[in-house]
Specification:
Elements lengths: L1 E6 L10 E5 L6 H10 L2 H7 L10 E5 L7 E6 L8 H15 L5 E6 L8 H16 L18 E6 L2 H29 L7 H15 L2 E5 L1 H6 L3 H6 L8 E8 L6 E12 L18 H16 L4 E11 L11 E3 L5 E3 L7 H12 L6 E6 L3 H7 L4 E4 L3 H14 L3 E3 L17 E2 L8 H10 L8 E5 L5 E2 L9 E2 L4 H9 L2
Parallel strand pairs: 1-6, 2-4, 5-6, 9-10, 9-13, 12-16, 13-17, 14-15
Antiparallel strand pairs: 3-4, 7-8, 8-10, 11-12, 14-17, 18-19
Helix pairs in contact: 3-4, 4-5, 5-9, 9-14, 10-13, 12-14
């Protein structure tokens, strides 16, 4: 889908679908202009209470006598409760409704709209449209001609002074949303086609496209570097594990940020085999996919930053070679891990990723992983959990989420939990005490493999990575969580 900014007037602008936002308690200037053009029609809708401007309420009118052939009204709720996220969600709803009736849509901003904040508003609308329009159709072969698409959208401005800000918001919104959709594609691809070698190929292609530094530690190199943790997790698969390292470096960077991503392309649970949700376990590389999407966005936005991404790409399967409950493995930093459960494999993979990251000169280290079911219970799919000994890092990540729409919430990391991961026969074990504080137990384990924990944070996207219910700009399946929040974080830190 293509987007553009055009200067013109609503009444004389030809489009298949005009999308007009308005409040429940106050009519927007755009709404009033359309109301004047249509005379009594919008007043009748309000009188009959078919459309009252309530949040995400929608109504469509056919207007054959106008230059705009249809009008889609979308409510933003009460004006004082309005936020950028509300606008993003309204645009997502608009995309899904409009595509069934038109191949194009136009969203107007009048001269009365302040230029201040216009860029952010257009960015949010663009993100909502592009993210909301997304569908994963790679494996569909039947009835494709029945699936309707939006081909383009236009942001209509009336004043010349608005054009620059609107174009800036459009460009940024397109880059971020398309990067998130790229991540969605990676996660949605079935494990038969997205295994460790496939993930390596995708990362290599991205690196070539954006001229990123790229190297791979294959199994022999992992063994040489004593990265026995990731090797253990991958023992059960015919496709050997590997570590992918990508580097983005732009002149003017003040910090070196390192991100570690869990890239378990399929997680059967190993000998602690999963008893449910196995059909969704292709999403266990969602952390790695988010980091690749983030790199794509950073490169296109030309952000002045130095970012290294480290991905542990591996399959957690069952075979005669697979690691077993009760095994003890040694990570790169020399610490030994008692494997109490082979399905708590993500933290074992990240043990080597974080150990390696700690050998590099990092200003901060952040890992992102589909780590626990506890995150699903605690926060559901609408937010990720953040753990860090650093108030500043944790608060910065949460703040980036509020701006981007990828929500995050901080979970405490009290020292009391360190006792829960101590092992009787090794340095640490990969489970906490019973089922208590699962998010914190996972984070506390990971902290053991970070040389300077005060410069580290952990993001658990256990549920945020995948949706079973459709939301305004989030489809069923992969959500693309992580791309927008992490890009925002890098830009501001």
């Amino acid at each position: 889908m293509k987007g553009a900014v055009t200067r013109g007037k609503i009444a004389t602008h030809a489009t298949g679908m005009l999308v007009v936002f308005t409040y429940e308690d106050k009519e927007t200037a755009e709404y009033k202009t359309v109301e004047k053009a249509l005379k009594a029609e919008l007043a009748e809708l309000k009188k009959s209470k078919e459309f009252e401007g309530k949040k995400l309420q929608a109504a469509m009118l056919r207007t054959p006598k106008q230059k705009f052939k249809k009008v889609l009204l979308l409510g933003l709720g009460k004006q004082k409760e309005m936020s950028i996220e509300t606008l993003r969600r309204a645009a997502g709803s608009a995309a899904k409704i409009a595509r069934e009736f038109s191949a194009e849509l136009t969203i107007p901003f009048l001269a009365s709209t302040s230029v201040k904040g216009l860029s952010e508003a257009v960015q949010a609308i663009t993100e909502g449209l592009v993210l909301g329009h997304y569908r994963f159709l790679q494996y569909k072969t039947q009835n494709l001609e029945e699936i309707k698409f939006l081909k383009n959208f236009t942001i209509l401005v009336e004043a010349a002074s608005q054009q620059g800000a609107a174009k800036k918001g459009l460009e940024r919104g397109m880059i971020l949303s398309e990067a998130a959709n790229y991540t969605r594609d990676l996660v949605n691809i079935p494990a038969m086609d997205m295994h460790p070698a496939s993930l390596e190929a995708a990362a290599r292609k991205l690196a070539k496209q954006h001229k990123l530094g790229f190297k791979v530690f294959q199994a022999p190199e992992l063994k040489k570097r004593k990265m026995n943790a990731i090797l253990a997790v991958g023992q059960g698969s015919a496709i050997k594990p590997r570590m992918l390292i990508l580097e983005y470096k732009k002149p003017g960077a003040k910090q070196h940020l390192i991100f570690c991503g869990k890239g378990v392309t399929y997680d059967a649970g190993g000998y602690n085999i999963k008893m449910k949700m196995m059909e969704y376990m292709k999403d266990d590389m969602g952390g790695a996919a988010a980091l690749l999407g983030m790199l794509s966005a950073l490169a296109q936005l030309k952000v002045k930053a130095h970012v290294t991404v480290i991905i542990g790409a591996v399959e957690n399967l069952i075979s005669g070679d697979a690691y077993k409950p009760g095994d003890v493995v040694k990570a790169m930093n020399g610490k030994t891990i008692e494997v109490l459960n082979t399905d708590a494999e993500g933290r074992i993979v990240l043990a080597d990723c974080l150990s390696y990251a700690s050998t590099l000169k990092a200003s901060k280290i952040i890992d992102i992983a589909t780590l626990t079911g506890a995150a699903m219970v605690a926060l559901g799919p609408i937010a990720a959990a953040v753990c860090s000994p650093s108030d500043k890092i944790a608060e910065s990540i949460v703040a980036a989420g509020e701006v981007s729409g990828d929500r995050a919430w901080r979970i405490p990391m009290w020292d009391d939990y360190k006792e829960d991961i101590k092992s009787d026969i090794a340095d640490v074990k990969n489970l906490g005490f019973q089922f208590y504080a699962g998010i914190t137990a996972g984070a506390t384990f990971l902290q053991e493999f970070v040389e300077k924990p005060e410069k580290w944070a952990h993001i658990d996207i256990g549920a945020a990575v995948f949706e079973e219910r459709e939301r305004p700009y989030i489809p069923k399946g992969a959500t693309g969580w992580g791309v927008r929040i992490l890009t925002n974080y890098v830009e501001n830190n």
